Amino acid sequence: MHGTIETTCFDLDLTLASGQVFRCRKEGGSWTVCSRDRLIRLRQDGPRLEFSGAGEAFVRRFLGLDDDTADALERLERIPRLRPAIRACRGLRIVRHDPWECLVSFICSTRSNIPKIARSLDLLARRFGRPISGGGGVCAFPEPGSLDDLDLLRSTGVGYRAEYLFETNRLCTEERLAAIGRLPYEQAREALKEFPGVGDKVADCVCLFAFGFREAFPVDVWVRRAMLALYPRSGTRESEIRRAALRLFGPDAGYAGQYLFHHRRLCEGKTLGEGKALGRGAALSA
DNA sequence: CGCCAGGCTGTGC
DNA sequence: GCACAGCATGGC
After folding, report:
1. pLDDT for the residue A200
2. How are strands ordered across the β-sheet holding A24-27?
3. Which nucleotides of chain C have an atom under 7 angstroms from any protein CB?
4. Most buried in the list A153, A177, A206, A218, measured by CB within 10 Å?
């Protein structure tokens, strides 16, 4: 390990195993995470976070370590119906992922599950990406424009999402994505939905996990269940649930949603790699 | 065999 | 605007 960061209100396991980033795995107490062409190793011991593979500034930004998480969680914990999720997952942070990898990841995520998403992204990197030097066989995530072979896309197990990836790859450039990230939240959300395979939920995932719009509230089946249980009168349609969340949680909606998501899954015994099996089901197999 | 998974698209009303 | 079917794939 090359550097150390003293953290507060941070839990590496919760952050990396909560379905924000998929090309990561835990082995022998330390995590290996891939973001685009960087391979980062991380180990947490109490408040001490050891890292290598990237500079401190990158690690801080990627893991959201400079966000005022404590303030947001304090506000959310005052909402009684949210308190169990906040207490159970304290230290979970919203990451700041690479927009292109995040976009592709969540196009793959539709009507799928986390272990399968991880496998597909690992295969995508192997089929289309270049090996990371000194990465032990781990490949960089393919650049925008390089996902240009439909048959090869289909071979990664993404099924009907192969056409979405193919078309989005054709339309998307690094510059276009960056420009979308500079728009106001609602406009960025609409602009993302111009890419095939991107609807309300995927757009909100990119807004939250890559662009840092903390009011974004992705509504998937787990968040829907959690909200229906906690706020049964706020409506059942996705649009109603999202409106309710923005009204109830305001600028902290993103954190609220991610805590609800992960807590709900913890309560049902479903986490990335099913707990002990991190490595068998997880991504980044070399 | 069935049902489910961090939903989206096209169609019909 | 709304609801609803179809969609590929793999795990259980």
Report:
1. 98
2. A3-6, A48-52, A38-45, A30-35, A24-27
3. 2-3, 7-12
4. A206
Partners of A52 in the beta sheet?
Answer: A41
Q: What are the 10-residue block averages of pLDDT along chain A, 286 residues in total?
A: 95 98 96 98 98 98 97 98 98 98 98 98 98 94 98 98 98 98 98 98 98 98 98 96 98 98 94 52 66
- Beta-carbon contacts of A268 under 8 Å, excluding residues fewer than 6 positions away, are none
Dihedral over Cα of A217, A223, A229, A232: its sign: positive
Angle, CA of A152, A22 and A72, to the nearest 5°: 145
Q: Which positions of A are catalytic?
A: 201
Tell which strand B nucleotides have any atom below 7 Å from a protein Cβ. Answer: 4-9
Task: Determine the residue type at A218.
Answer: P
Tokens 């976070």 map to which residue?
A49
- Distance measured from the CA of protein residue A52 to the C1' of nucleotide B3, in angstroms: 43
pLDDT of residue A270: 86
pTM (whole model) above 0.90:
yes
**Distance between the alpha carbon (CA) of A251 and the C1' atom of B4, Å:** 32
User: Separation of CA A247 and C1' B13 in angstroms?
Assistant: 31
The Cα A121–Cα A259 span in angstroms is 24
Contact (CB, 8 A) for A97 and A21 = yes
Strand B at less than 7 A from CB of A106? yes
Q: How far apart are CA A206 and CA A202, in angstroms?
A: 6
Nucleotide nearest to A110 in CA–C1' terms: B7
Listed in sequence order, the residues at least 6 apart from A18 whose beta carbon sits closer than 8 Å to its beta carbon are: A89, A92, A258, A261, A262, A272
